[in-house]
Design brief:
With 398 residues, the protein is mainly α. The protein is 44% helix and 6% strand. It is built from 15 helices and 5 strands. The longest helix has 18 residues. The structure holds zinc ion (ZN).
């Protein structure tokens, strides 16, 4: 049995978790601080000052990196409605955007009247990066973590727009940053190297894949954080809106539903009635959550109910029922994922086995979760496209 927080039920295998003598976790303690002791009026006036410092002086007032999920959609809506800013929306397309998400995005962009830059990196390279990151870290999303955080910084430099607004602060869900420090979290190169890139730089990655994979070194540029001196010269600030206003996911979801007609979606392994708004951006989310369950013994249902338990919006009994019913099931997207990478399920299992966090013991024989209604639309690879195109290794003359 994993040890769990008395309030939110997060287990000891959760990243950055620590328990105090009462069995309460550090993330719950941060939440008490966020509610009780942060002077949110003061934070809001800091936001006013920050915005006035940059407003009207550049080709855009700010950049909003945008996935189309609930947090970036709310951030964009808030900056436009509350401050009448002219933002440049920057979207890094990880390659797995769902139909519902694309419709949400189009509606949001049109209703708000914004300029948008969207970037999609090389698919063949993405597949190779996913495999390398899966094998090394048991997390196939390196290209997505790094691309989402570095690409908008390149756009900031290219367009000379120094202010960048992210949404949710990481103090909401990890202890890498702490509300109690009473400092504004900077989404910068430090953070990128400490947690975002899983400890693998783009240069490292290039070295790792070069033995068997043909690519142009420039292909990795979008995943590389731009030089700090260039960002400093620009006078950049890269911050989370949630450092300045109290982040309340449920409330914000209802605002974007009303104002923008934003729609939630079914996500594999999630209770769709209770959590229709969480992580709808990617059709491989189910695989990601499944891997987390195998490694750490908890998944997204535990994470979502933890937030609600902390906010006293759900009972412990109801949370446990949802966890028991939904968590740890095998997603149908796993089949698609294995086709992309050209590996079998047992190869997948033995890769994950190596990254399991003790004392968790994984169960690889779970039943399948329900198929989402857009499953048939998810990109499938057939025949010769499946798997990764390896470099032909020249045979050395004898
Ligand atoms: Zn807790």
């Amino acid at each position: 049995m994993l040890k769990k927080c008395k309030i939110c039920n997060l287990p000891e295998t959760y990243e950055t978790i620590e328990f105090d003598s009462m069995g309460i976790c550090n993330i719950c303690r941060q939440k008490e601080f966020k509610d009780g002791e942060i002077d949110w009026l003061h934070r809001k006036s800091q936001l006013d000052d920050l915005i006035e410092q940059y407003r009207g002086k550049f080709s855009y007032d700010c950049i909003v990196p945008f996935s189309g999920g609930k947090d970036s959609t709310f951030t964009l809506q808030y900056l436009i409605k509350e401050y009448k800013l002219k933002p440049l929306v920057v979207q890094f397309n990880h390659g797995f955007m769902r139909k519902g998400l694309i419709e949400n995005n189009q509606r949001t962009f049109r209703k708000l009247g914004v300029d948008v830059i969207s970037f999609t990196p090389n698919w063949k390279l993405i597949k190779r990066l996913m495999l390398e990151s899966l094998v090394r870290k048991g997390d196939f999303c390196w290209h997505c973590h790094t691309g989402i955080y570095s690409y908008p910084m390149h756009v900031a430099l290219q367009n000379q727009v120094p202010l960048i607004f992210w949404g949710e602060p990481s103090s909401e869900y990890t202890a890498y940053y702490d509300y109690r420090d009473d400092k504004i979290e900077e989404v910068d190169e430090d953070k990128f190297n400490r947690s975002t890139n899983l400890g693998i730089t783009a240069e490292d990655m290039a070295g790792m894949i070069s033995k068997d994979f043909d690519f142009d070194p420039r292909d990795l540029a979008p995943f590389m954080y731009p030089p700090l001196r260039n960002l400093k010269k620009l006078g950049y600030r890269s911050v989370c809106l949630g450092s300045y206003i109290p982040w309340d996911v449920k409330k914000q979801v209802s605002i974007i539903q009303q104002e923008l007609g934003w729609k939630g979606d079914e996500v594999e392994g999630m209770p769709w009635n209770e959590y229709p708004y969480e992580k709808i951006e990617c059709h491989l989310q189910g695989v990601r959550d499944y891997i987390k369950y195998l490694k750490r013994g908890y998944g997204r249902v535990t994470q979502m109910t933890a937030l609600d338990l902390r906010n006293q919006r759900i009972t412990h009994q109801k949370a446990q029922e949802l966890i028991d019913e939904y968590e740890g099931k095998k997603p149908h997207s796993l089949t698609i994922f294995l086709e992309y990478l050209g590996i079998t399920e047992s190869e997948f299992n033995s890769i994950i086995e190596k990254t399991v966090v003790p004392p968790n013991i994984p169960n690889f024989n779970a039943e399948y979760s329900a198929k989402t209604s857009d499953f048939a639309d998810w990109y499938r690879e057939s025949g010769g496209d499946q798997g990764i195109q390896r470099k032909l290794i020249p045979i050395k003359p004898v």
